[in-house]
Amino acid sequence: MDGHADTVVLRPGIDGIAEVFHTHLRQHAYPMHTHRSWTLLIIDSGTVRYDLGRHEHGALDRTVTLLPPGVPHNGTPTTAQGLRKRVLYLEPEQIDTGLVGRAVDQPMFDDPLLRHRVHQLHGALFRQGDRLEAESRLELVSERLRQHLRGTVGPAAHPDDPGLAERLRDLLDARTVEGCRWPRPPGPCTPTPPT
Fold it and tell me: What is the mean pLDDT of each successive set of 10 residues along the chain, which is 195 residues long?
């Protein structure tokens, strides 16, 4: 694609994430288009201007942008150096589609905690063997996004939602075998006999 360099695409096989996309755009401008997924992006350098829901927006390197599924948007780097961005395409059910209108009204969040968590999730997705970490980080990111869209965001993601710890525990429990220690050492787990 003209204007692209250093592009990486990953389908991580994690429930809730359709695709991961890292790119450096220099001059390429995206025409109006839609996705079936939520588009969660962070900017590593540069800025971008885009239209969403008949309103002009921009994204900076300190912010997190969430574009809702099915809503047309475009995108153009605004500096000569271009734009480095990392994108997660989240499955539609990852965030209640009843919140699409709120995401159209406010697609950008100036939230250092959320940005850091999205950064950590990208890291976990590219480290082989960190599936549980990626799933856990995805839940933290998704919950923080839902809080923003509902207008209930607080200084941390889980104090406002006592159910978050339970959902994270369920992720861990789904990965354990009865009688095995967690975290498991590398290799197959041999259940220890009850004492």
Answer: 69 95 85 95 93 87 94 90 93 95 95 96 89 95 96 62 57 52 46 46
Residue ranges of the domains in the chain?
A: 4-175
- The pTM for the full model equals 0.77
In CATH terms, the superfamily for domain 4-175 is Jelly Rolls (2.60.120.10)
Among candidates 78, 92, 74, 16, which has minimal Cα distance to 43?
78
CB-CB neighbours of 96 under 10 Å = 12
